[in-house]
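Data availability (excerpt). The following record was deposited with the supplementary files.
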Amino acid sequence: MRIVGFLFSLGPILFGIGFLAPVIASVMGAAGLDAPVGLSAIQFGLITGIILGVIARQRKTWLW
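Predicted structure:
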């Protein structure tokens, strides 16, 4: 049960990796935007998704 509880506590970070990262990469590709600092679109999406997930986990909400 501890493992399940730990995984649920990582929910926002996993959401950022599993959902937000591909969405960000797809939107960047559709809009014809290049990622900064020579990163690929998915790398930029992963970094952004992880950062937003960590922020949401710390704040305990996705709402600002």
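Summary of structural features: The radius of gyration is 13 Å.
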